[in-house]
Design brief:
20% strand; seven-stranded mixed beta sheet; alpha/beta; 483 residues; Aldehyde Dehydrogenase, Chain A, domain 1; Aldehyde Dehydrogenase, Chain A, domain 2
Length: 483
């Protein structure tokens, strides 16, 4: 294991600290099924130590009382270091979770710097204090840090999602304990080194990778004031209930089953060129993946053919190959899950037009062929449940009202897109979709705008000033009127 990263310490209290236990997490490269790295497997005792360090840093340290601009300087330094080291970071993430390195460079790494830079800018412009003319005298309304935060990170976009939690927490003046997922913890250790080298005060950020049981201990720890979780809806329900019992502040960014509506007047080639890469992004392992493609019934065959052709031409291979567009799924269990959904689609009467099996010549690694289903109805499991793999469903609609009905007929409401020649008409349709973010004739997450979902897609918002508000409490100070 000489050529792969091996970490034997946890980052707690500004120091590289020996873990309480002896177990390790062996990270496996999904493309090769060979070791990609090793980190300590955190325990409840490690979480106790990390929360205590974060608590001290908040209650006794200088961090919360520093000016937002001073805190942002540390974040800016880290963003600069990431920018200077983007390719190695993208390759590291590709080796731990199978994200194609060509996509990882932008979607995993550069996107993280965009988040950091957005919050560095907000540190200067955000109104942390507002003085109002009250009924009896002036009222000072302050936005103060919520305290110690817990950031629970998924494996699919680890560095980006760490930054979604870390950047606003830092600018707000919070301290934080990050728990990376066991499948993809390696980049968190790189980030910890960067934070340390940037002069972060001890205990402001602590990193303890661990599994679900230890993560639940973090969620319920009495020293934690706020939890931010990104992951499955099932896990989010559990975390939300635990936080509700404790009246603990919580942000939940959960699953999605986003619809891409191809309007009757759309140029099919343009729409498909936009939809397919964003349905297959990160091997389909993205909560915002445009997995349901809604096609006008009069043009259904044309759209199915175009989608199938585009998906069939997608290059599948080792995540570290720069030519790869779809890599492996993160783990064998994830491949089993996706194959189960493909079987379900067939059983329920949907028709596979391309893919549906394992790619030839890739005998090692957890690969599934990018797959398109036609003749899908919206009540099928493949249309209602989040597959989290490279599987697209093309669903026919009768008219625009029917398309809106189908798009909204989902437990989820995270993302979506509308594609049409008439931009204004497409935007009108977008406004009717019950989803937290939606794009018109493109697909993007705007780092300055709130990101989150309706319905079972979560609670609260990340990104933009709304993401900073999530780490702040309101305090009103009433002043006596001057006589």
């Amino acid at each position: 294991m000489a050529d792969i990263p091996v970490h034997d310490r946890l980052y707690i209290g500004g120091e590289w600290t020996a873990p309480a236990g002896s177990d390790v997490i062996e990270v496996i490269n999904p493309s090769t099924e060979e070791p990609a790295g090793q980190v300590p497997d955190g325990t409840r005792a490690d979480i106790d130590l990390a929360v205590a360090a974060a608590r001290r840093a908040f209650d006794e340290g200088p961090w919360p009382s520093m000016a937002p601009k001073e805190r942002a300087e540390v974040l800016a330094a880290v963003s600069g270091t990431i920018t200077a080291d983007m390719q190695p970071l993208a390759e590291l993430i590709a080796s731990e979770n199978g994200s194609p390195v060509s996509w990882a460079l932008m979607g995993q790494v550069y996107a993280a710097t965009m988040v950091a830079d957005q919050y560095v800018g907000l540190a200067d412009s955000f109104a942390f204090t507002d003085v109002r003319a009250g009924m009896m005298g002036p009222s000072e309304v302050r936005k103060v840090p919520v305290g110690v935060a817990a950031g629970i990170i998924p494996w699919n976009v680890p560095l980006f999602i760490m930054m979604l939690k870390l950047a606003p927490a830092m600018v707000a003046g919070c301290t934080i304990v990050l728990k990376p997922a066991p499948e993809a913890p390696l980049d968190a250790f790189v980030l910890a080194h960067m934070l340390h080298d940037a002069g972060l005060p001890p205990g402001v950020v602590n990193v303890v990778p661990a599994g679900r049981e230890v993560g639940e201990h973090l969620v319920t720890h009495p020293g934690v004031d706020k939890v931010s979780f990104t992951g499955s809806t099932a896990a989010g329900r559990r975390i939300g209930s635990l936080c509700g019992e404790r009246l603990r502040r919580v942000t939940l960014e959960l699953g999605g089953k986003s619809a891409a509506i191809v309007m009757p007047d759309a140029d099919v080639a343009t729409a498909v060129a936009g939809v397919v890469p964003n349905g297959l992004m990160n091997n389909g392992q993205a909560c915002v993946a445009q997995a349901r493609i809604l096609a006008d019934r009069d043009r259904y065959d044309e759209i199915v053919e175009a989608v199938s052709e585009a998906v069939g031409a997608t290059r599948v291979g080792d995540a570290l190959d720069p030519e790869t567009e779809v890599g492996p799924l993160v783990a064998e269990r994830q491949r089993d899950r996706v194959e189960g959904y493909i079987a379900s689609g067939r059983e329920q009467g949907a028709r596979v037009t391309v893919g549906g099996g394992r790619p030839a010549g890739l005998d090692r690694g957890w690969f599934v062929e990018p797959t398109v289903f036609a003749d899908v109805t919206n009540d099928m499991r493949i249309a209602q449940e989040e597959i989290f793999g490279p599987v697209l469903s093309v669903i026919a609609y009768d008219d625009v009202d029917d398309a809106v009905r189908i798009a909204n007929d989902s437990d989820f409401g995270l993302s979506g897109s509308v594609w049409g020649a008439d931009q204004a008409a497409a935007a009108d349709v977008a406004r009717r979709i019950r989803t937290g973010t939606i794009s018109v004739n493109t697909f993007m997450l705007d780092m300055c705008s709130p990101f989150g979902g309706f319905k079972s897609s979560g609670l609260g918002r990340e990104l933009g000033p709304e993401g900073l508000d999530a780490y702040l409490e309101l305090q009103a100070i009433a002043h006596a009127a001057e006589s």
